[in-house]
Amino acid sequence: MFELNTNSETPLYLQIVEQTKLAIAKGYFSNGDKFPSVRELSRKLLINQATVSKAFKELDTQGIIETKAGIGTFICFDDEKINDRVDEINKKLQDDLIEARYLGISLDEVIKMYERAGDYNDR
């Protein structure tokens, strides 16, 4: 499920974050599902535990996972944090639409661009 690119400019921990989000979007993980531990994931990906730990901290900050001491790590959507992220995305979309209008791109063209970008099943 996780395929890290060591040649990418994107740090490994952020690749883990993004690929976790993609796995959720594709339906591999749902709210409440058990998530691999830092140790398990670092062993599977053959990377330092500190890197995976950094990814877990970011996933927790974004309201995607929760680690319960002695029990494990789970996909656990924090509605408040998720709503904050939705607000951020909404602002970005507004900025993108203003830029598109400035560049003369029609709303239909923007919708087609988002549809192409949203075809994450091919990734």
Automatic annotation (TrEMBL):
Residues 10-78 form the HTH gntR-type domain. PANTHER family: HTH-TYPE TRANSCRIPTIONAL REPRESSOR YTRA. PROSITE patterns: HTH_GNTR (PS50949). The keyword DNA-binding applies. This is GntR family transcriptional regulator. Keywords: DNA-binding, Transcription, Transcription regulation. InterPro entries: Tscrpt_reg_HTH_GntR (IPR000524), WH-like_DNA-bd_sf (IPR036388), WH_DNA-bd_sf (IPR036390). Pfam families: GntR.
